[in-house]
Amino acid sequence: MFTPEIVDLPDVWPACRRTQCRSAAAVARVDALYGPVVVTCENGHFRAYRKKSDFRRGARYAGLFSEAAVAADPSRDGGERLLEPTGRRRAEVLEDADRCALCRTPPAEHPFRPDLDLQGDRELWIWLQRWRPSVYAQLREAVVIAGQRERITFANWRSSITPRLREILVRELSDSALETDHLVPVERLAQLVGVLAPRELAFAVNRLLLAVCRSCNDARRLERRSREDYLRDYVRALHGGDERVARADAAAWRMMESIASHAARVRLATDERSA
Ligand SMILES: [Zn+2]
Ligand SMILES: [Zn+2]
């Protein structure tokens, strides 16, 4: 039986980007025999993944976890391999995506397709108006107020708004960055190695690999999700939100139902803290 472990990371981290958290601490946790180390802020907000090898002898974080938590025995490495998509799958998923599979927001900068990046301030404002209406409203208001003192143009609006609002803008843009992750997040999927049938696991690792924005990916890690949540994400991310289309591939739907049921039952050490 595997015992989860949680440790503090020694170095200072950038302030947590979750609103009103700003924690500069980082906590690493090993929840499962397989899969990466998950790093959160002290309040449980997702920060990053780290490879288990970073915590083994001679590496940067050696000695923080017990040997057992990060041991590199052959059977375990086999398990970790099972969670990694085949070949170029991650790059393909990103290349094919022009927006987040969950919230549909197009990224401000695309990792592989510079032609899709926001070009200039005019496009940036249109993007904000469409995808971040409340930030756009704040920006409009700030510019109207500044416009009572001086003439505001696309050349000087950035210097006319407060540093706080500039910071919000920068964060919204960087949170729109696309990342690849599994529909069932990898730390939960790691708990299902040996539980799911091999073809179900392969389906979850390769077919259910999504391009999602950082903002959606962080948010969904904060909560435990139900079977229905996973099925809803599946319909939305892979079938344009149409459940009839999703059910039309009956074999895939049955596999998805099984994966969703199992994933909803996974308990991680941090679930109680973030509940
Ligand atoms: Zn935080
Ligand atoms: Zn999103």
Question: Explain this structure to me?
Answer:
The protein is α+β, with helices and mostly antiparallel strands. It folds into three domains: 1-83, no CATH class; 88-101 and 178-275, no CATH class; 114-175, no CATH class. 46% of the residues lie in helices and 10% in strands. The protein has helices at residues 67-70, 74-83, 89-96, 120-131, 133-147, 157-160, 163-175, 186-189, 198-207, 214-221, 227-239, 243-248, 250-265, 271-274, and strands at residues 5-8, 27-30, 37-40, 46-50, 178-182, 209-213. A four-stranded antiparallel β-sheet has the order 1-2-3-4. Helix 9 packs across helix 13 (250-265) and helix 11 crosses helix 13. The longest helix has 16 residues, at 250-265. The radius of gyration is 21 Å and the shape is globular. The relative contact order is 0.12. One zinc ion is lined by residues 16, 18, 21, 23, 41, 43, 45. Residues 100, 102-103, 105, 212-213, 215-216 line the site of one zinc ion.
Task: Provide tags for this entry.
single chain; 275 residues; alpha+beta; 3 domains; 4-stranded antiparallel sheet; 6 strands; globular; binds zinc ion
User: Number of helical runs?
Assistant: 14
Radius of gyration of CA atoms, rounded to a whole number:
21 Å
Helical/strand content category? alpha+beta
User: Distance between termini?
Assistant: 24 Å
What fraction strand?
Answer: 5-15%
Mean pLDDT across residues: 88
**Tell me, what's the shape?**
globular
Main sheet: which strands, in order across? 1-2-3-4
**Bound molecule types:** zinc ion
> In the residues, how many domains can be counted?
3
Element order: H for helix, E for strand: EEEEHHHHHHHEHHEHHHHH
Q: What summary fits the major beta sheet?
A: 4 strands, antiparallel
Fraction of helical residues? 40-55%
Low-confidence stretches at least 5 residues in length (pLDDT < 50)?
none
Q: How many DSSP-defined strands?
A: 6
